[in-house]
Task: structure prediction
Amino acid sequence: MAPSVEISIPKAQTSKTTKPYTIYDISLRLPLRSFTIQKRYSDFTALHGALTSQAGAPPPASLPQKSWFSRTTTNPELTEERRKGLESYLRTINEADDTRWRDTSAWRSYLNLPSGTNSSTASALHSAVTGTSITDPVVWLDCHRDLKSQLHDARLQLTRRDQATSAQAQHECSAQAKKCLVRAGTMITTLEQGLKEQGWDLGEGEIRRRRDLVGSAKKEKEGLESLLSAMAAKSQLDRTVASVADKTALVGGASPAGAPKQGRVLGKETGRTRELDNEGVLQLQKQLMQEQDGDVEELAKVVRRQRDLGVAIQEELAVQKDMLEMLDEDVTRVGGKVEVVRKRVDKIS
Result:
């Protein structure tokens, strides 16, 4: 039976920290999505120990040996050899007939895999899209990714509507955009309920980050809905102006030579203009233009809020990155001290 997850390590790179180390890019392909995670060699050793502890036996493959006389950051041949060895290590566990190592929480957590099988994950994602519930934090991310896709499609349909030249094409694009926005609204509600109802052990920072993601998506949806309303009002205004112009041209063509062209075309009136005189139509036009200007101002406020939110997220990520680098340096330094103590204890014993 073919493995449900395809794993590979296509490349390795050196970190840009003060004390460089090698990072391995692990590419995973699932039936519903594909993504890449980054791990160090020390992460692999921790995984090996966790798998041995939880499964009761060492995995069917061994990690490549650690070199004490050369570093992967300065030796490309050693880096490539270790990359191949780590890739073979993961593939051997992933393709083994014995599933006890793949069934451990350490394996799923290390590779960011959902807790259920592929069929259950697909069913959970479908339930999230249809507005029922989300029971897995990884499926929550899949649902958020689908939400961003719906918002992107809605924006694309609005762009096509703005470029359309016929009324039918504009109507079709508007319908598609509204359909995407309705789905997005359902998914936003589902994501919010998932964060409130499920007791996931994700940490306060991760929960806050996911709430910010939902808030940003909600603001983007509201902005797109305002833009769709503004486009619909503009189209209504254009049709009203065109009707007035057509009637003026028709009545003016039947006037005597030299008489001013005025009047409106009968049979092309709308429900809002049929009972109005020319002055009333002009006032209606001004009112619609004011409403359109108000919608544009609201959209501008939404865009500014999104920009501020993006700047705040970028600053927070920079702070978190610096803290992680400091923590990594501390862990490396403590690990070196522990190794020295261990050697001294070995000499004494």
